[in-house]
Design brief:
By secondary structure, the protein is α+β, with helices and mostly antiparallel strands. The chain has a single domain, classed as 2-Layer Sandwich (Nonspecific Lipid-transfer Protein, Chain A). The protein has six helices and five strands; from the N terminus they run H-H-E-E-E-E-H-H-E-H-H. It is globular and about 35 Å long.
Length: about 130
């Protein structure tokens, strides 16, 4: 079963995979980052929140950092786990950032744990 990226069905499937995965050994800089993400899609903006290295639906009113990016780039970063794509896009001006840039940069510089990488592969397998 595959689910459309960022759909309610996709979030439910991802939540189930995260619960099954247990402790992901998330690096400290990834755990510390709180980021509101607006993903521009053909169907309108999707709002996502990153906390403790995980994506959830919606925005959080006290998040110190906000980013805006398009769906193909979000897919590369969040589904394909291509952290280099995020850095390159930021340097090219393809990601709009407001707020605390330091935590975003620190998060991007961390190498995901082996458990996070395994989870990313599972998420990619259920995403269309």
């Amino acid at each position: 079963m595959t689910c459309a990226f960022l759909s309610d069905e996709w979030f439910a499937a991802v939540d189930a995979l995260v619960a099954k995965a247990g402790d992901l050994d998330i690096p400290p800089a990834m755990k510390a980052a709180e980021i509101n993400v607006t993903v521009s899609t053909a169907g309108g903006d999707r709002h996502v929140y990153i906390k403790n290295g995980l994506l959830s639906r919606g925005h959080h009113p006290t998040a110190p950092t906000s980013i805006v990016l398009d769906e193909p780039l979000a897919r590369r970063i969040f589904v394909e786990a291509d952290t280099a794509a995020g850095i390159q896009a930021f340097l090219a001006g393809e990601i709009k950032v407001e707020g605390d840039l330091a935590k975003l940069v620190a998060m991007q510089m961390e190498e995901p744990s082996a458990k996070q990488k395994a989870l990313a592969r599972e998420i990619a397998a259920i995403t269309r």
